[in-house]
Design goal:
The chain is an alpha+beta fold and 480 residues long. It folds into 3 domains: 1-238, no CATH class; 254-321, no CATH class; 337-478, Histidine kinase-like ATPase, C-terminal domain (Heat Shock Protein 90), CATH 3.30.565.10. 48% of the residues lie in helices and 18% in strands. The protein contains 8 helices and 13 strands. The strands form 3 sheets. The chain has a 6-stranded antiparallel beta sheet with strand order 2-1-6-5-4-3. The chain has a 5-stranded mixed beta sheet with strand order 8-10-11-13-12. It has a two-stranded antiparallel sheet with strand order 7-9. A hairpin with a 5-residue loop joins strand 5 and strand 6. The two termini are 59 Å apart.
C-alpha cells in the first residue's frame, strides 16, 4: 500500500478523485437544497392561493357550509380567535402543524353535541400568542401577510406532509377568522428522493471515470520520466557519461527536465574529462622534475664530485612550486571561500613589482576590492611572471577605476598572444612555448589559476594586444 501511494501517478489520481468528490458533494448538496426550496415555495404558493380563495368567500359573507373546502384533496381549516374549529374539509381525518388538531368543526362558542378538545384551552392560548401584536383588520378585509408552516394531514386514509398557508380575515359579525390551507409536499419529496438516488448512483460512476482517466493521463505524462529514470540508472551502472537520456518531443516540464538532465550530464562529462586530463598532465609535470632530481641524486651517490647541487635545488624548487599550484587549484575546485578582506590593488601592485627588474606601476589611489589578499597576490604574481618571461625590455602595470569596476592591466612588449590562442592560454597545463622543457617556461598553471581566482571574485581576466605590442592581460573586479 505504501509503495502504491508512493508513486506520483497514484497520488495524482487520489488527489484528483478527492477534489472532484468534494466538488460533487458540495454541488449535489446545493442542488438538493435549491430543489427543495423551490418546490417548497411552489407548494406554499399553491397553499396561499387556496387559503386566500377561502378567505375571500368568508369576506363575501358565505356561511361555513358554503365554503369550498374539499377541492383537490387539500386540508383546510377555519379557526376562530379563541381557537375553535368552525369549518374543515369533510375528508380530513387528522392534521398537525396548524396549532389546532381538531378535524370536526363546531359552532363558534360551543355547540350541542360538540365536545371541546382536551387541549382547547392550550390551542386558544397558542392562537392568542400567534395573533398578539398583529394589526387589527377592518370588516371584510383579508390580511395581506401570509404565514407558512410545515405539517402533516390524513385525507381519505392517505397521510402526507403539507405546506400550510395561514391567512387572517375579518368578518365583523363573526370576528377574526384564520384560514389554514395546505398543499402537498409529495412532489418535493419525490423530486429530492429521485435526485438523491441519481447522485448516489451517478457520483461513484463519475468518480470512477475521473480516477481512470487521471490514471491513464498521468501514466502517459510520466512515461518519459520513467524512460529518463531507466537511462540514468543505466548510466550510473555503466559509468558512461557520454550517454544521454531521451528527450520527448514536447514543450512541457518533462521535456525541460530531460534537457536539463542532458546538460548536467554534459557538464559532468566535461568536468570528469577535465579532471582526467588534469591528473594526466599533473603526473607528466611531476615526473620530469622528480626523474631529474632522482638522476642527479643517484649520480651524486655514486660520484659525489659530479653532483649538480644547483640543478637539484632548481628541480626541488620547481617541484615545490608545482605542488603549491596543484594544491591551490584543488582548493579552488573545492569551492574555497574567497574572503571579504579589503585589498588596495594599487598598493598590492607596487608591493609585487618591488624587486622585479623592468616593471613599472601606475595606479590610482584607493582602488579597493573585496576578497582574499593571498589569492589576489597570487594572481598578480602569476601575471607579472608571465609578462616578464615574454617581455623584451619591460613590463607595465596600470591600476584604475572604471565605473563600478577596478581594472588592473599588465602589459609586456613581447610577441603577444595569437588571437586564436587567447582563450586556450587560460587552460590548465597549456603552454604556447615550442618545447616543454625544464626551463623558465613554467608548468602552464599560472594563467589558469589567475582566471579561476578572478572568476571566484566576481571578475574577469582576458588578454588582448598591448598598444605598444606584446600582450595585455586585463583583470576586472567589482569595487568595494
Amino acid at each position: 500500500m505504501r509503495r502504491l501511494f508512493g508513486s506520483v501517478r497514484a497520488r495524482a489520481t487520489l488527489g484528483a478523485t478527492l477534489v472532484v468528490a468534494v466538488a460533487l458533494v458540495a454541488a449535489g448538496a446545493a442542488v438538493l437544497l435549491s430543489l427543495r426550496s423551490n418546490l417548497s415555495d411552489q407548494a406554499g404558493t399553491q397553499a396561499e392561493r387556496t387559503a386566500r380563495e377561502v378567505a375571500a368567500e368568508i369576506a363575501a359573507g358565505k356561511t361555513y357550509g358554503q365554503l369550498s373546502l374539499d377541492g383537490d384533496d387539500r386540508p383546510v381549516q377555519v379557526v376562530t380567535e379563541d381557537g375553535t374549529l368552525v369549518a374543515a374539509g369533510e375528508d380530513l381525518e387528522w392534521i398537525s402543524g396548524t396549532g389546532n388538531d381538531a378535524v370536526r368543526p363546531r359552532a363558534a362558542g360551543g355547540g350541542a353535541g360538540q365536545t371541546p378538545p382536551e387541549d382547547a384551552d392550550d390551542d386558544a392560548d397558542d392562537k392568542a400568542e400567534d395573533t398578539a401584536g398583529e394589526d387589527a383588520l377592518d370588516a371584510g378585509e383579508i390580511d395581506e401577510e401570509t404565514d407558512f408552516r410545515d405539517g402533516s394531514a390524513t385525507i381519505d386514509g392517505d397521510t402526507e406532509d403539507y405546506r400550510f398557508a395561514v391567512v387572517r380575515v375579518e368578518t365583523g359579525d363573526r370576528g377574526t377568522l384564520t384560514v389554514y390551507a395546505g398543499a402537498p409536499l409529495s412532489a418535493e419529496h419525490s423530486a429530492v428522493s429521485t435526485a438523491l438516488t441519481s447522485m448516489l448512483i451517478g457520483f461513484p460512476l463519475l468518480l470512477g471515470v475521473v480516477a481512470g482517466v487521471t490514471w491513464l493521463v498521468t501514466r502517459r505524462a510520466l512515461h518519459p520520466v520513467e524512460g529518463i529514470r531507466r537511462e540514468m540508472a543505466a548510466i550510473t551502472a555503466s559509468e558512461d557519461l557520454a550517454r544521454r537520456v531521451p528527450e520527448p518531443e514536447t514543450h512541457d516540464e518533462v521535456a525541460r527536465l530531460a534537457r536539463t538532465t542532458n546538460e548536467t550530464l554534459a557538464a559532468l562529462e566535461t568536468s570528469v574529462e577535465r579532471q582526467r586530463r588534469f591528473v594526466a598532465d599533473a603526473s607528466h609535470e611531476l615526473r620530469s622534475p622528480i626523474a631529474s632530481l632522482r638522476t642527479q641524486l643517484e649520480v651524486g651517490a655514486a660520484h659525489p664530485e659530479l653532483l649538480d647541487v644547483t640543478g637539484a635545488v632548481e628541480d626541488t624548487v620547481r617541484l615545490q612550486h608545482l605542488a603549491a599550484d596543484l594544491l591551490l587549484l584543488a582548493r579552488l575546485d573545492a569551492g574555497e571561500r574567497r574572503g571579504d578582506t579589503r585589498v588596495d590593488l594599487g598598493a598590492l601592485a607596487r608591493e609585487e613589482a618591488a624587486g622585479r627588474a623592468g616593471v613599472t606601476v601606475e595606479a590610482d589611489r584607493a582602488v579597493e576590492v573585496a576578497g582574499s589578499r593571498g589569492q589576489l597576490e597570487r594572481v598578480l604574481a602569476n601575471l607579472l611572471d608571465n609578462a616578464r618571461r615574454h617581455a623584451r625590455d619591460g613590463v607595465s602595470v596600470t591600476v584604475r577605476r572604471e565605473g563600478d569596476r577596478a581594472v588592473l592591466e599588465v602589459a609586456d612588449d613581447g610577441d603577444g598572444v595569437p588571437e586564436g590562442e587567447r582563450e586556450r592560454v587560460f587552460e590548465r597545463f597549456v603552454r604556447l612555448d615550442a618545447a616543454r622543457s625544464r626551463d623558465d617556461g613554467g608548468a602552464g598553471l599560472g594563467l589558469a589559476i589567475a582566471r579561476d581566482v578572478a572568476v571566484r571574485h566576481g571578475g574577469t581576466l582576458t588578454v588582448r594586444d598591448a598598444p605598444a605590442g606584446g600582450a595585455l592581460f586585463e583583470l576586472r573586479l567589482p569595487l568595494v
